[in-house]
Write a structure and sequence with these properties.
The protein is an alpha/beta fold and about 500 residues long. It has 12 helices and 23 strands. The structure holds flavin-adenine dinucleotide.
Length: about 500
């Protein structure tokens, strides 16, 4: 059932086993898995009743705006509210609608590589291993209706598997791995409207309430007692309509990495060590193609693997899944060079890399307030470090050497040229990172806020490092694991 918060009278107190806040892939997956196991779930979404993310843009401007500085000041001034069109950046960044940013994401999916979970110079380890996540990645592969069987460690993402499906060949570039990325079928992309076992989240047993904005997380003595939630009226410049309370045994904050940090800061929750909002990361992407292949280096069968083509043309399965390959420095090479992960398209093009965790890259509260609920707005600062320059310079030199050894050649510009056109590109990571040490992270390995016994965080805000895989498949995997934890512990 989907209802509108405006129809819930002020003063109402709703109760549930679990309240999930946010209806992007993180929140919907957790809510789906919890209700499936018989838990009474309330799932709230701040957006008013819109069927298209384009229509919700004016509300987004009112509620997501604030101050974006650091590298944003030159490269992506409107990062917080980037509109759906009429802008120069290739990304739309984030949405405020049922389904969240999955209302227009690309569906590109791959598990994080085992190296990402290990501690590396400049990159903290994760308090969980890839092996521990594999059973949940397998469940996520089914939930996302990806192609093939995940197996014990991701067989349906391996190069051998795809070389077989596509009747193609791996180029085996020196110092690089070929990694395969699946794209989810278009009918499964929007988590607000897609079906799971034939029904949408709105048709499930979850009590889905749209037009229900979380304002405050009430907590004391290490426990959350309730959430303060408000709806908006129907005016073009909306004002608060009703105000109600939700009480649950556990709460899951799933508002995306920028809003997760803002909500915790607004409620002064989980910030005992000043870490909420810190280590904002992304996969910086050059706006234009900067890597050019000036002399070819792959044969037809190798090119087909990288482009996801069979000898008969583009490959797509019955569920709409597609696949492509990328060249990525091997784990050994990345550790030897002390660089982050990055990928290269076989035919050149945009550059895309793993940003180093940077304490100064962060989210805080702005001195201005939003025009609807009059709460402090977001202040976000995006900063790169010298290590990011090293990643670019060393990885491009490696790629050029590997291509040269196959008789080809590559051109790439200097770091300053590339840096001046980097954008965040929709992958917002860090800000409430996971660590088993409360002085180093906001949530523990179970995604529970260290200092609160019943508040959990879902989404890429909990990632301690970004790896190079797109984040959402791991977000979905972690939400399945979180629901499993809550289903067992509540
Ligand atoms: C153009 C683009 C392309 C992308 N392509 C890919 C891709 O190919 N592969 C990939 O892995 N990722 C991709 N992404 C990233 C992907 O969209 C995000 O990783 C994913 O949507 C994050 O899911 P989430 O549930 O954590 O947050 P979101 O999807 O952002 O959802 C957050 C939800 O919280 C709600 N909310 C916020 N504040 C409140 C509040 N106070 N009260 C109530 N509700 C609130 C919002 O309305 C929203 O519904 C792309 C992103 C963009 C912008």
């Amino acid at each position: 059932m989907i209802r509108n918060g405006r129809d819930i009278p002020s003063g109402t107190v709703l109760s549930a086993d679990v309240c999930v806040i946010g209806t992007g892939p993180a929140g919907v997956t957790a809510a789906w898995e919890l209700q499936k196991a018989g838990k009474k779930v309330i799932l709230i979404e701040g957006s008013r009743d819109y069927s298209n993310y384009r229509d919700s843009w004016p509300d987004k401007v009112m509620l997501y705006n604030g101050l974006a500085d650091g590298l944003f000041a030159t490269n992506e001034k409107e990062f917080l509210i980037l509109p759906y069109d009429g802008h120069t950046s290739p990304a739309w960044e984030r949405e405020r609608i049922l389904g969240g940013t999955s209302s227009h994401w690309g569906g590109q999916s791959r598990p994080l590589d085992p190296i990402v979970f290990d501690e590396r110079p400049g990159y903290p380890g994760w308090p969980i291993t890839r092996k521990e996540l594999d059973p949940y990645y397998a469940q996520a592969s089914s939930l996302c209706v990806l192609h093939g069987h995940y197996g014990a460690n991701g067989e349906n993402f391996s190069t051998d598997y795809w070389a077989g499906v596509l009747q193609a060949e791996d180029a085996k570039l020196d110092g690089f791995e070929t990694e395969m990325y699946q794209f989810m079928g278009s009918s499964y992309l929007n988590f607000g409207t897609r079906t799971f076992n034939g029904i949408t989240i709105g048709q499930s047993n979850a009590d889905v309430i749209i037009n229900a904005t979380l304002l405050d997380i009430d907590h004391s003595g290490g426990s959350v007692s309730s959430l303060q939630v408000a709806s908006m009226d129907t005016a073009t410049t909306p004002q608060p309509a009703t105000h109600f309370t939700i009480k649950a045994n556990a709460y899951v904050l799933a508002c995306g990495a920028v809003a997760n940090a803002r909500q915790l800061l607004l409620s002064n929750a989980g910030n005992e060590h000043g870490l909420v909002g810190r280590y904002f990361m992304c996969h910086p992407l050059s706006q234009n193609g900067v890597i050019s292949i000036t002399k070819p280096y792959l044969n037809n069968a190798q090119t087909r693997l990288m482009n996801g083509q069979t000898p008969n043309g583009q490959w797509t399965d019955a569920n709409g899944v597609r696949v492509t390959g990328r060249f990525i420095p091997t784990a050994e090479e990345a550790i030897k060079q002390g660089i982050g992960r990055c990928w290269f398209w076989a035919g050149g093009g945009q550059y895309y890399f793993e940003m180093t965790p940077n304490y100064n890259s962060h989210i805080s509260l702005a001195s201005t307030v939003d025009p609807v609920f009059r709460q402090p707005q977001t202040h976000i600062t995006w900063e790169l470090a010298d290590a990011d320059k090293q990643t670019y310079e060393k990885s491009t030199a490696l790629f050029k050497a590997a291509v040269n050894s196959r008789g080809g050649d590559v051109y790439y510009p200097d770091w300053n040229t590339v840096k001046s056109q980097l954008v965040v590109n929709g992958h917002h990571i860090g800000t409430t990172r996971m660590s088993s040490d409360p002085t180093k992270g906001v949530v523990d390995a179970d995604l529970k806020v260290h200092s609160l016994n019943n508040l959990y965080v879902a989404g890429s805000s909990v990632f301690p490092s970004t790896g190079i895989s797109n984040p959402t498949y791991t977000i979905i995997t972690l939400s399945i694991r979180l629901a499993d934890h809550l289903n067992q512990s509540l």
